[in-house]
Specification:
CATH architecture: Sandwich
Shape: globular
Largest sheet: 8 strands, antiparallel
Number of strands: 26
Helix content: under 10%
Number of domains: 1
CATH class: Mainly Beta
Low-confidence stretches: 10-17
Strand content: over 45%
Order of helices and strands: EEEEEEEEEEEEEEEEEEEEEEEEEEH
Distance between the termini: 31 Å
CATH superfamily: Jelly Rolls
Radius of gyration: 19 Å
Mean pLDDT: 91
CATH topology: Jelly Rolls
Structural class: mainly beta
Number of helices: 1
Length: about 325
């Protein structure tokens, strides 16, 4: 998914300066952003004072939206580099096209994973004949320096492994949870899991104390380590945890995001993740003037132009270990 903010700003991410080394309970409120023609998203990452969770660098939550009489999601062709996009749905369908020739409809609880590597472009849209409701999350994972120029590729996994406990079903989207590993390709130690809780659930989810974590509330309301987390918000949890208490009196849907703190300093601007102003500037120029990012065929519309760069140089900040 594209960051369609026409006033795209620099996001300074990475480095140990942003990491909390012990358990915390920091509730993050979203920023509301218009996406395309009819979709409004709640942006949880990057957030004021909290830029990343492990390698997770971007989190948008949208819906549930009634799109029965609307076109739904319509995101024109746009570029990416230096990251992976993770498409995750609870309701509806999203048709993915990319410059590799991939054409895939992603449905609820299926993983759509696009690794941009050095350069790719794609579009996302609700199919012409689509379900009434659209509800999901779009997330980005920053690629480490050793792998950020890999060949671009797209993966679709319809069957994902699950971890169960009384009242809890955890679908492992990426990485490993409680010894269960997703088939999706990862480049840093991380985890992403979709949690479904039934009414009256009291559960404790095992965690890796070396990871930092956050929980995104997709629907309902649950208490995460005793903190009520309303739908559309996210609770940052820090590091040093071996388990996570979860409780709900009603049905609730959550996403667990975590990973080893991302030590590299990165620059994230528009749909690019790089390491310097010059790299971002070159990527923008290439999208506008060269065939580097390829062409998306089949989308009924023109591709998305890049916004103007800010008048000051983009500089990564933060600390490295």
């Amino acid at each position: 998914m594209s960051n369609l903010d026409r006033q795209a700003t620099l996001s300074v991410c990475g480095g140990r300066g942003f990491v909390v080394a012990e358990p915390v309970r920091e509730l993050l409120s979203p920023r509301h952003v218009k996406l395309g023609e009819s979709t409004e998203v709640r942006r949880l990452l990057p957030n004021l004072g909290r830029r990343m969770v492990g390698a997770w660098a971007f989190v948008d939550h949208y819906g549930p939206d009634d799109i029965a009489d609307e076109s739904g999601m319509q995101v024109p062709p746009h570029p990416h580099m230096g990251l992976q996009t993770v498409s995750w749905l609870h309701d509806g369908e999203v048709l993915h096209r990319d410059s590799l020739g991939s054409l895939q409809t992603v449905r609820p609880r299926e993983l759509g994973l696009m690794t941009s590597g050095r350069a790719i472009s794609h579009s996302e849209e609700s199919p012409r004949a689509h379900a009434r409701f659209l509800h999901g999350a779009q997330l980005w994972v920053a690629l480490p320096d050793a792998h950020r120029n890999v060949d671009p590729h797209f993966q679709h996994h319809a069957d994902l492994p699950v971890v169960t406990a009384p009242g809890l079903t955890a679908t492992v989207i990426l990485g490993t949870l409680d010894g269960t590993t997703s088939p999706g390709t990862t480049y840093t130690p991380l985890v992403g899991a979709d949690l479904t809780l039934t009414p009256g659930t009291d559960a404790r989810l095992p965690l890796d104390p070396d990871f930092e974590y956050a929980v995104l509330a997709m629907s309902g309301e649950a208490k995460v380590d005793g903190v009520p987390v309303p739908a559309g918000s996210m609770l940052y949890l820090g590091c040093g945890r071996t388990e996570l208490p979860l409780h709900t009196d009603s049905e609730a849907g959550l996403m667990l995001l975590g990973g080893e703190p991302f030590e590299e300093e990165i620059v994230m601007w528009w749909n690019f993740i790089g390491r310097s102003h010059e790299e971002i500037e070159a990527a923008r120029k290439d999208w506008m003037e060269t065939p580097r990012f390829g062409d998306v065929t089949g989308y009924a519309g023109t591709r998305l132009p890049a916004p103007a760069l800010p008048p000051v140089a983009l500089k990564p900040r933060g600390r490295v270990r």
